[in-house]
């Protein structure tokens, strides 16, 4: 005799639908998603430190010292613009805040060499006339790169900078001066060295101690000791433009994750040429397009959980893929921006999805390596991995495979690294607390009684605006009164 299958209602009453509940697992590694989320949160807690009033004042003192130094550089030979606009970014060049090559940089480690790091873009030249079309000479360069002819500028500018140019004579007898990133960097390093030498001949109370000045390729790295803090400034000479380059015009025609959240005018307010060349480019002539100002605006539209995953993933790859220097944290940043365009905003806004985002970023990076393809976000036709050898990309892909197989263990290792760096910082602070250098604002008074109003303002500027653009408008004849702009707000 055949028996009929129980109906759905009977099956439910018999308990046939009682499925065991399992924790959410990552299929590839078997890691519990909940555990990965907790590890990412722990990393974020140790990586994002809060600063007290004394530390905020030390940050302010270091910033004032750097800007005063740049004012003196301008006075040496009047090469730099008198009224300049700097872009101050949280994080050093090694953190991928700007698209620069890392293979020429000396290795600095947080905790061992410095406690906080910043990147400062300093325009050597500005082309800020919006009515003048941005004309870049890309005939001799790879995508995302350009030569810069000083014919775009007046005779006075050419006269000041021609010793930092390469000269090309044409058949018709005309002479063309091309702004040289290597010669500009050499001049900048020499000028900074002269100024620092003069400053150190007449030390003042509360003045930061210059612990290190190094030229790393075309970047000048300065480590300052201020009180109990050590601050790394990566100073980058750039060419600043208003508007948008024609080579990136088609990018504006596409749909993007930031549409409707910020205006197009905010995104395309300006771009830079930074001193870096393509793999086969001519180092003396070639500059790289940088959209650092636009990236600061775009970061305002990225969810906190995705940013936490990005920071954790970046910390893992900086350690894991450090040799050979092929993958930069900037590549990971580009992949994150592409993911924002690809995935629904409500999915990326999930607060408890940091683990999914971390695993996805690792997958994306591995995919890019295996296919040797990482498009620049603003100029997609530019493949930033095109020059890598098959051997190099497969070596890094295999390393990433080990991370993907056990992400929890790599997160734990990364957490231990950041905790060790914090312990080194705290130990140095304890040693220096008895001999803390007073802030210049204290006028020789009690250094333990800082100006509360100033400290609160500085904390707002530095600690409450992670990743935001801090522009400083400064007159070298009065460096005591800088004007700050955080994104579109003035202080």
TrEMBL record:
Organism domain of life: Eukaryota
Region annotation (Disordered) ranges: 431-452
Residues annotated as domain Mab-21-like HhH/H2TH-like: 325-400
Record-linked Pfam families: Mab-21, Mab-21_C
UniProt cross-references to InterPro entries, sorted A to Z: Mab-21-like_nuc_Trfase (IPR046903), Mab-21_HhH/H2TH-like (IPR046906), MAB21L/cGLR (IPR024810)
Biased composition (Polar residues): 432-442
Protein name per Swiss-Prot or TrEMBL: Protein MB21D2
Gene name of this polypeptide: MB21D2
């Amino acid at each position: 005799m055949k028996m009929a299958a129980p109906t759905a209602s009977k099956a439910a009453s018999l308990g046939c639908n009682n499925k065991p509940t399992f924790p959410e697992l990552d299929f590839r590694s078997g890691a519990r998603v909940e555990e990965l989320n907790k590890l990412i949160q722990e990393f974020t807690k140790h990586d994002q430190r809060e600063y007290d009033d004394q530390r905020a004042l030390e940050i302010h003192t270091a910033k004032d010292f750097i800007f005063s130094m740049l004012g003196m550089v301008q006075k040496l030979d009047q090469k730099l613009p008198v009224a300049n606009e700097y872009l101050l970014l949280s994080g050093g060049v090694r953190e991928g805040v700007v698209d620069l090559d890392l293979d020429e940089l000396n290795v600095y480690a947080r905790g061992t060499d410095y406690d906080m790091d910043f990147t400062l873009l300093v325009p050597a030249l500005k082309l800020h006339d919006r009515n003048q079309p941005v004309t870049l000479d890309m005939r001799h360069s790879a995508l995302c790169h350009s030569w810069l002819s000083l014919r775009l500028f007046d005779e006075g500018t050419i006269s000041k900078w021609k010793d930092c140019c390469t000269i090309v004579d044409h058949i018709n007898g005309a002479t063309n001066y091309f702004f040289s990133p290597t010669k500009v960097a050499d001049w900048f390093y020499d000028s900074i060295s002269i100024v620092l030498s003069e400053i150190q001949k007449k030390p003042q109370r509360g003045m930061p101690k210059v612990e290190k000045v190094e030229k790393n390729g075309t970047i000048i790295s300065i480590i300052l000791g201020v009180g109990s803090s050590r601050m790394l400034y990566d100073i980058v000479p750039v060419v600043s433009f208003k508007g948008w380059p024609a080579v990136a015009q088609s990018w504006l025609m596409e749909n993007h994750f930031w549409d409707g959240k910020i205006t197009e005018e905010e995104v395309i307010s300006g771009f830079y040429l930074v001193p870096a060349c393509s793999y086969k480019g001519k180092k003396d002539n070639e500059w790289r397009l940088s959209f650092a100002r636009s990236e600061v605006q775009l970061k305002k539209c990225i969810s906190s959980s995705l940013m936490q995953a990005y920071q954790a993933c970046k910390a893992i790859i900086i350690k894991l893929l450090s040799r050979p220097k092929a993958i930069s944290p900037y590549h990971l940043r580009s992949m994150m921006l592409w993911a924002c365009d690809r995935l629904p905003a409500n999915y990326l806004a999930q607060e408890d999805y940091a683990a999914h985002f971390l695993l996805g970023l690792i997958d994306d990076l591995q995919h890019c390596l295996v296919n040797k393809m990482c498009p620049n976000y603003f100029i997609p036709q530019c493949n930033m991995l095109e020059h890598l050898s098959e051997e190099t990309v497969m070596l890094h892909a295999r390393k990433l495979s080990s991370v993907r197989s056990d992400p929890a263990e790599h997160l734990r290792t990364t957490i231990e690294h950041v905790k060790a760096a914090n312990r080194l910082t705290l130990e140095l602070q304890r040693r220096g607390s008895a001999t803390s250098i007073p802030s210049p604002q204290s006028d020789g008074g009690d250094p333990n009684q800082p100006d509360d109003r100033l400290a609160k303002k500085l904390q707002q500027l530095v600690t409450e605006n992670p990743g935001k653009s801090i522009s400083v408008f400064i007159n070298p004849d009065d460096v005591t009164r800088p004007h700050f702009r955080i994104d579109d707000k003035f202080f």
